[in-house]
Design goal:
CATH class: Alpha Beta
Distance between the termini: 46 Å
Number of strands: 6
Radius of gyration: 13 Å
Strand content: 35-45%
Structural class: alpha+beta
Order of helices and strands: HHEEHEEEE
Shape: globular
């Protein structure tokens, strides 16, 4: 079993990569096949739906990625504070995420919390 923070950082790296094949390779290392992702805007299940959401994120925020600022874990659960950064590595937001891991140490559920801008 791998360290939860190491798994989390592999998963986080998938948000930064720009191609589907790069994302898939990182998913295979860090996520269970039937993983679920939730945030205030969407719910996904499995690699394909999460990959589509990540690729859409890159259309909205070219070069966008996340930097972990704090990570805590125990009993196959983790909580993480992070910064969202643009392609120039400038902080454009922050939030927290909750993760759950299976017996092999792979993520089965990721839930992001952040402030959603008001719709104008």
């Amino acid at each position: 079993m791998q360290d939860h923070q190491q798994i989390w950082e592999i998963y986080t790296a998938a948000w930064k990569t720009e191609t589907a094949s790069e994302k898939q390779a990182l998913f295979e290392q860090s996520l269970a096949l039937n993983c679920e992702y939730h945030d205030p805007l969407i719910r996904t299940k499995g690699y394909d739906e999460l990959e589509t959401y990540m690729l859409e994120f890159h259309l909205q925020v070219p070069g966008g990625h996340f930097m972990t600022t704090h990570f805590y874990s125990h009993t196959n659960k983790s909580i993480t504070s992070w910064e969202m950064r643009n392609g120039e590595d400038v902080k454009i937001g922050d939030g927290m995420s909750y993760g759950e891991y299976n017996e092999l140490g792979k993520l089965i559920s990721m839930t992001g919390f952040y402030e959603v801008p008001p719709v104008e």
